[in-house]
Amino acid sequence: MNVSLALAGNPNSGKTTVFNALTGGDQYVGNWAGVTVEKKTGHLKTNKSVDITDLPGIYALSPYSPEEIVSHDFLMGKGNEKPDVILDIVDASNIERNLYLTTQLAETGIPLIIVLNMMDIVERHGDRLDAKKLSEALGVPVFEASALREQGIATAAERAVEIGSVKHKPYHARINVKFSETTQAALKAIIDVASANMPKTRPQIHFAIDLFERNGTAQSELGLSGLQMESIERIITDCEKALGDDSESIIAKERYDFIAWVLDTCYIKSERENFSDKIDRVVTNRFLALPIFAAVMFLVYYISVATVGAIGTNWVNDVLFGEWIPAALEKGLTAINAASWLHSLIVDGIVAGVGAVLGFLPQMAVLFLLLSLLEDCGYMSRIAFILDRVFRKFGLSGKSFIPFLVSTGCGVPGIMAARPIEDESQRRITIISTTFMPCSAKLPIIAMIAGGLFGNSAGVAFSAYLAGIASIILSGLILKGFKKLKVSQMPFVMELPSYHAPRALNIFRHTWNQLKAFIIKAGTIIFAASVIIWLLSNFGFENGTFGMVDSEHSILSYIGRVIAPIFIPLGFGSWQMAVATITGLAAKENVVSTLSVLFSASSGMASHGNIDTVLSSHLSAAAAYSFLLFNLLCAPCIAAISAASRELGSKKWTAFAIAYQTGFAYVISFLVYTVWSAIS
Ligand code: GDP
Question: What is the reported pTM?
């Protein structure tokens, strides 16, 4: 018999870790119908007839964000696949906040099992949490667990399957939040008015709370008459008057009161300051936080771009793509007597273009590894917390940090990550400015300029990061001045998870996923673009006939010469740089591969290996930095533009975003180039 389990819990409660442990990695990742919220499903490793669905991480079951709506509808059986049991993953080291969702899950009437995860942290802090007493107080099974150590999870799942297999015994979770007498009376009165309309699928109290909170979906779902609605509204307003608060706040406050009462019976917090608190006293200190953050990021870039990563990249560039591959191809092509154009297409076009991008793989691998490490140990959440104080001053939300962080990987999910920002103006400003962050595709450009003109200086790479942050802040100030982007101030609450030792598997999985996307892009878009650039830069009209020509006479050079004058004020007015910038709109890696194809043809290099040297003879330091800035800040690639267009919801806003980004990039690059040239 098939049993269906749902994993529910707050973000960062360890759901993914539990899910991976239960399914053994055998999982299917898709999207919930109609939204871009990730849906993960799989089977229990030890019993394939048990389906497991991982719900999105949420703090509450209220119908506001897409994540909450998806979870709510799934638990209500709206997608025809109501789960038999909910496994509620509770972060025991943050128990008060986590139990809030638990009280709501219990009211769905679906059997509930609580997995008290992160018990290892609770123990390490010296806190005492009595699972047995908690279970008695709540009336549901509670299992102590540590997903990280794979303890307790299997037992909890076994019990869930056992409960889920009993189809005919109605088993309801018995957590009844003890609301205040006034509220209880109001809820009961609502049930009296509407009980005939309430289907048996859920406990009546659940409908009553929904109605009490004036939840529109519940009102229309029950098909209440005008008369019933009036009576209910009267009950609610009477209760609101009596308690001096609005109905939603009353329910929320009384849930927390109930949780405090439950925890009183089973939870003793240690008096001593724990390890996380000690670190946080320094790391999130008012004055030290930002300098520490800057130092950490500098170190990350120093290791990945300038030292360890650079050794790998130099090897790939100079040895692998500089000698081995060209030499092997040379041999093969000579052996089959390949025509000289084919030879050039493969060596100067494909190997130079794709190789130029793949050459940066070692630097990216080290960078992703370090960022995953910071994320996994809990430091990234601190950064969000620290930056929140700063961001709020610039018309951005603390929640904008997540899109900015995600955008250091890729702007497309970065733009989508802006969805939870409630304020429409803050959300728009975030979407417009988030691609200023140097994404992974821009890293090759940064590394190329840093390596070619500044001796691999970590300072240059780091300054690209700072330029991204500074542009975001400056744009916040500029954009909030627009009438249509007026921002209302909203408070931001954020929970800091405890620090913990990072887990190798998590980090490698994360790093690999990002590298994989990069490699696939190199094999598809960059490959195709390199072939096209090679064709356009090798063919053209000379002396009135069309054919293979010197790149200076190629079709591409003509196109480039039309565009190039625009960039003269920025210091890089050659047709090659203009063409590279334009091809960057398809994918930012193209900037590097285009230059590589162009220069390898014109300089007669065997491969792109010496692009650094060619560049340094082509550009001054000021012009190179201006080129870097322009390419970092101007309109992002097509994929990110279309994501922004979807999220902004109108062509007008999209056009505004592109114009703003490109205009901003132009002005900044112009200023930097002019000042730099003047003083050097
Ligand atoms: P999700 O956001 O709920 O999917 O949470 P994850 O599964 O990604 O876990 C968040 C972080 O907590 C990860 O770094 C996990 O390695 C860590 N984690 C998960 N379970 C435990 C646990 O039982 N103990 C400790 N110390 N860390 C855990």
Answer: 0.58
